[in-house]
Amino acid sequence: MLWLGAAALAVVVLVGGGIGLLLSQGGAGDEVRPSTEDESNDEAKTDDAGTGSAGVATTLLAPAEVAPTTTALVVVTPTTAPATTVAPSTVPATTEPPPVQPLVGDLGLAQLITQPVCDDTYITVLASAVDPDRYASAVADSLVNYQGSNYLKTVETCSSLRPSVDGADIYVVYFGPYVSRDEACDARVFGPTDAYVRTLSLTVPDTHRIQC
Predict the structure, then answer these.
(1) How far apart are the C-alpha atoms of 36 and 42, rounded to whole Å?
(2) What DSSP state is assigned to residue 86?
(3) Model-level pTM?
(4) Which helix (H) or strand (E) holds 25?
(5) How far apart are CA 51 and CA 208, in angstroms?
(6) Backbone angles phi, psi at 188, to 5 degrees
(7) What backbone torsions phi and psi does residue 19 show, to the nearest 5 degrees?
(8) What is the pLDDT of residues 3-59, one digit of tens each?
(9) Range of lowest pLDDT (43-52, 172-181, 192-201)
(10) In 59-100, which ranges are E strands?
């Protein structure tokens, strides 16, 4: 029984010594506690986790939601100019020429009066009309009788032609004009026997005579 008492006492001593040792280490640790790299990392991890060194919890804010940027897709369609349609012209197939204004002295016949140039050319006189009452009929008959002939009013033409007879104007049916006198003379064979030649001039007197 003696040895049991000694063993119990030894246990008490050991337990008391262990508690004292623990208390002494806890107090010394409060005064000087060397920092280690692991503890720094632990603190950094604690801060990252949201708890500061003062023990204040820090709330990490989620990044603000940014509305996605909508890019409008613009489709450019090439425009094609409409074809220009030119309306067909409405010009009639046949256009009548404007009416010819008759010269002074025209008798209203199917064939218009003429007014040849006074350039010293020649005409072959086929017939003359001096009766105002028969101007139109006499001239019309002569034009029919001598195909290819024309007519003029002497007072409206050249001063080399006699302008009147007894105050009455003179209408002449003629061939020509011809450049040469010989041509005018040769044309007499296609007219009456009393056909004669005259010059269309502004300098030759109306009394002149041409011998063929």
Answers:
(1) 10
(2) P
(3) 0.55
(4) helix 2-31
(5) 147
(6) -65, -25
(7) -65, -40
(8) 455 555 555 555 555 555 444 555 444 444 544 444 444 444 444 444 444 444 444
(9) 43-52
(10) none
